[in-house]
Design brief:
Strand order of the largest sheet of chain B: 1-6
Helix content of chain B: 10-25%
Radius of gyration of chain A: 24 Å
Oligomer: heterodimer
CATH topology of the largest domain in chain A: Aldehyde Ferredoxin Oxidoreductase,  A, domain 1
Largest interface: A-B, 27 and 17 residues
Distance between the termini of chain B: 13 Å
Number of helices of chain A: 30
Radius of gyration of chain B: 15 Å
Number of strands of chain A: 17
CATH architecture of chain B: 2-Layer Sandwich
Order of helices and strands of chain B: EHEEHEEHHEH
Largest sheet of chain B: 2 strands, antiparallel
Structural class of chain B: alpha+beta
Helix content of chain A: 40-55%
Distance between the termini of chain A: 58 Å
Strand content of chain A: 5-15%
CATH class of chain B: Alpha Beta
């Protein structure tokens, strides 16, 4: 990085610190994947408390996001808002988290009340913080309250100290503060790998779509890097609590620190998967070479890449931003995992990128990514096919602490509003928000960092902008609801779901909002036609969300599950599930914890937490059928130009599926017929899914179902009874 | 560069090399702790031993694997965190892991096994490359 951080400057930062509270503790030795302790910190009164993790918590909630949900449930009331001091940020790695032998085992799960959805949100993030936190003796970190002034929380897992310190001089933007704190707390270059920083950025405090960055030290590039807990605005909560950073330091990572019951089994499973990745990654998904970016051209080829606010799924200029171009920018031949032992190594970095805009113009920086989601969100979905712009935007989103997905989907929505004359230069303060205008898109982001101009509206996210445009500017709410790609207040991630009914459900029937981490069924449904009936789709919308929830209970990453497949996977009875890898996970869990689950019990573990999260939504005033309504843009063509772009397909469907002859009908009539059919299909799917999940027609888990799952605690039953 | 080369046609599968190696590098009489392996040839050939190709160096996130000045690939045990990526990534499956030994191990081309091989199926071979000349390791 071009900013030279001198020892003198670090000393100055340190000298301005005032220790508000410091405690000593005896770091717990891990047993079977658990420290059996949670660190609770309240920033309102600077209390620091060690809480016991009970056996019941481990049985029911397992860890990771399960622990986060349970702590948050106990911390908030139905009336609690995201910016009340009662709201918490809970970070937990899960019992399998931190093993070094199996790829993708360094994830942290973050849980909080979201500023954009108003309900509970969870985010799965890489980087070293979660495992180092656990090795420091804590299964979870629970932060409540609000500091009076800017603070840093520092956990030293070797010395056994925790401090809350006033930190007036440290930077807020991530690329600066992670360097400052890594320098400050490391005793040598070697020691830098032992530090991980959680931080956000200046735009997180001026918008509702802030993210958290989790750092790890890149030993080859000699620089700290970050992975993002992007969804749901948790970075905004973090800044609202006046936290600049949470730092953990732990020296001594080894492969056996989890003290698992069967290390040998874990080692065997790890070697087996390393070998699989070695043998097949290059001919399967090429994660090691390009990360997730190869999806850009695949999605474009299948008409699934969002273009111009999800109107279209394809663009002829996509080649300018595809993985072949990205490959030229990222440094190669690096073991780019975000935790030890991840041979999947999907993390990528661009070195020495010279910024062309904004406060750090001229600086040469290291950029994490770009991920597929970012390329689509701030590129194709805005009609921008300029890789340099995407990289610049990626950097600024990360350092300013803004979620690229929510920013992209929101900006795309604003651009469509602008082109539909709902917005104009007067309202935008001079920004010409037309599709393809990269300068305007970039300026909007810089405004967000400064807390100025139109970004004060843009940073609210799609749902709140819709309300404002209707109220202040008399916009047509039907149209805005159709084109505003949000559900539950969260912006959609970057896939066109119009031709996959199952994925429409996979997005809108989620717990936290339309993020693809619950279910990605487009190929199964649309391309391979493996789940033709409503029952098939409902089964998939039961199994996959439950299965994928499990990664978040463990501290695991989803990619090594199905972005690499064993050689004979296609010959198995259920290739989409990757049965051999499911069995790996069953054995990993058992080998760490000493429990004896099988693949069925794995799903039940998830079902408990999944249903609990649904009930948490209900407690907060959401979580019912009406909250699972998708915007029509995700279901079918909203505008004439959209219909015309796929006219042959829609006309054919009308004839073959709906049984209506499109001949002689106007476009508007055809759009209406298509809409009625597609919305009816969605409603039928919704009811089939609810039934499969053990829910009522209104999407409420039944008492019988939660009793069977063993989560019928009195406070849970009390919430449900009001709705049954 | 020095490495253990092989002529598999001469191997009688007496396993003596494994005994010698296990004793030399792991002070053990357990053949499973040998860095040279004699097997049925299903996977990689009858004699499996590291050819010092060095592909494991780049896959190690901890930079614990390095090439010594004589061209032999070595592991810095104190840096290894036991992720085993090198074991899965070795093209000839010659990076060995044993549950009782905390870090992987491999042939260090010490040549002890070649001295004991009754049929000369394994022997030490030296390849002098330009890099070594440039580095002043050899003339």
């Amino acid at each position: 990085m071009s900013c030279v951080l001198t020892a003198e400057k670090v000393q100055k930062l340190k000298a301005a610190r005032k220790v508000l509270k410091e405690i000593k503790y005896e770091p717990a030795k891990l047993e079977k994947g658990y420290a059996n302790k949670t660190l609770y910190i309240n920033l309102s009164d600077n209390s620091i408390v060690s809480k016991d993790v009970t056996e019941k918590m481990k049985d029911v909630f397992i860890g990771g996001k399960g622990f986060g949900l349970w702590y948050l449930w106990n911390a908030v009331a139905p009336s609690t808002k995201w910016n009340d001091p009662e709201n918490e940020i809970v970070i937990s790695p899960g019992p399998v988290g931190g093993i070094t032998q199996y790829p993708g085992a360094g994830k942290s799960l973050v849980v909080s009340l979201s500023p954009t959805t108003g309900s509970v949100v969870d985010s799965n993030v890489g980087g070293h913080f979660g495992p180092l936190l656990k090795f420091s003796g804590w299964d979870a970190l629970e932060i409540q309250g609000k500091a009076d002034q800017e603070v840093i929380v520092f956990i030293d897992g070797n010395k056994g100290t925790i401090s809350i310190e006033e930190a007036p001089l440290e930077a807020v933007d991530t690329h600066l503060i992670i360097e400052e704190l890594t320098e400050m707390y490391a005793e040598s270059e070697e020691d830098k790998r032992n530090i991980s920083v959680v931080s956000s950025g200046t735009a997180a405090q001026n918008s509702l779509i802030g993210l958290l960055n989790f750092s790890f030290y890149d030993k080859r590039r000699k620089s700290p890097r970050v992975k993002q807990a992007g969804r749901g605005g948790i970075g905004t909560v973090f800044r609202d609590k006046n936290i600049k950073a949470v730092v953990v330091k732990f020296n001594g990572v080894k492969g056996d620190l989890n003290n698992p019951v069967d290390l040998k089994k874990i080692q065997e499973l790890g070697i087996k998967l390393h070998k699989e990745i070695h043998d097949f990654d290059a001919i399967q998904t090429q994660k090691r070479e390009v990360g997730t970016a190869n999806l850009v051209e695949i999605m474009n080829d299948y008409d699934l890449l969002p273009v111009n606010n999800f109107k279209y799924g394809y663009h002829p200029e996509t080649w300018k931003i595809d993985s072949k171009q990205i490959k030229k920018k990222v440094t190669q031949n690096m073991p780019d995992g975000c935790w030890y032992g991840c041979s999947m190594a999907c993390a990528k970095a661009v070195d020495g990128f010279e910024l062309k805009t904004g406060p750090y113009k001229g600086h040469k920086v290291l950029i994490d990514g770009p991920e597929y989601e970012t390329v689509a969100a701030v590129g194709s979905n805005l009609g921008i096919f300029d890789l340099e712009h995407i990289l610049e935007c990626n950097f600024y989103c990360d350092t300013y602490g803004v979620d690229t997905i929510s920013l992209g989907t929101t900006t795309a929505f604003l651009m469509e509003c602008y082109e539909s004359n709902i917005l104009n230069k007067e309202i935008t303060g001079g920004l010409e928000l037309t599709f393809g205008n990269k300068d305007a898109a970039m300026e909007l982001l810089h405004q967000m960092s400064r807390g100025e101009g139109f970004s004060k509206i843009a940073g609210q996210g799609v749902r709140k902008i819709k309300e404002l445009l209707v109220k202040e500017y008399g916009a047509d709410s039907h149209f805005l609801n159709d084109i505003g790609m949000e559900n539950k207040g969260m912006e959609y991630s970057q896939y066109i779901s119009k031709e996959s009914l199952a994925q429409q459900g996979g997005y809108a029937m989620t717990n936290k909002g339309p993020q693809h981490d619950e279910a990605w069924l487009i190929f199964m449904d649309m391309v391979n036609n493996q789940i033709p009936s409503f029952e098939d789709k409902a089964e998939a919308l039961h199994y996959f969300p439950m299965f994928r929830t499990w990664f978040g209970l463990m501290g695991l990453c989803k990619l090594p599950w199905n972005d690499i497949e064993p050689a004979d996977n296609r010959q198995t009875s259920e290739p989409a599930k990757v049965p051999e890898h499911v069995q790996n996970y069953v054995e990993l869990f058992n080998s760490v914890t000493g429990k004896t689950i099988d693949k069925k019990e794995l799903i039940v573990q998830s079902e408990r937490v999944y249903n609990f999260q649904r009930i948490f939504n209900i407690k907060m005033g959401f979580g019912q059928s009406l909250h699972d309504n998708p915007p029509y843009r995700s279901v079918g063509p909203v505008t004439v130009e959209e219909y015309l772009s796929r006219q042959d397909r829609y006309d054919q469907q009308m004839k073959e599926l709906i049984g209506v002859d499109p001949e002689g009908k106007t476009i508007e009539e055809k759009m209406q017929i298509t809409r009625k059919y597609r919305e009816d299909q969605y409603d039928e799917l919704r009811q089939t899914v609810y039934k499969r999940r053990g829910w009522t027609e209104n999407g409420i888990p039944t008492l019988e179902h939660i009793k069977n799952l063993g989560i019928d605690f009195p406070e849970v039953v009390e919430v449900l009874k009001k709705h049954l | 560069m020095q490495f253990v080369d092989k002529n598999e046609e001469l191997c009688t599968k007496c396993h003596l090399c494994e005994d010698v190696c296990a004793a030399a590098i792991n002070k053990s009489d357990d053949r499973e702790k040998s860095a040279i392996r004699i097997d049925d040839g299903k996977n990689i050939g009858i004699i499996n031993v590291c050819n010092q190709c060095g592909e494991c160096i780049e896959v190690c996130s901890e930079q614990a694997i390095f090439k010594a000045t004589n061209g032999v690939i070595l592991i810095n045990k104190s840096k290894c965190i036991g992720c085993l990526v090198c074991v899965g990534y070795c093209p000839s499956l010659s990076m060995i892991f044993h549950e009782e030994i905390s870090v992987p191990f491999k042939c260090i081309a010490c040549g002890k096994c070649t001295k004991e091989c009754p049929t000369e199926a394994i022997y030490l071979k030296e390849i002098i490359n330009e890099g070594q000349v440039a580095a002043g390791v050899v003339e």
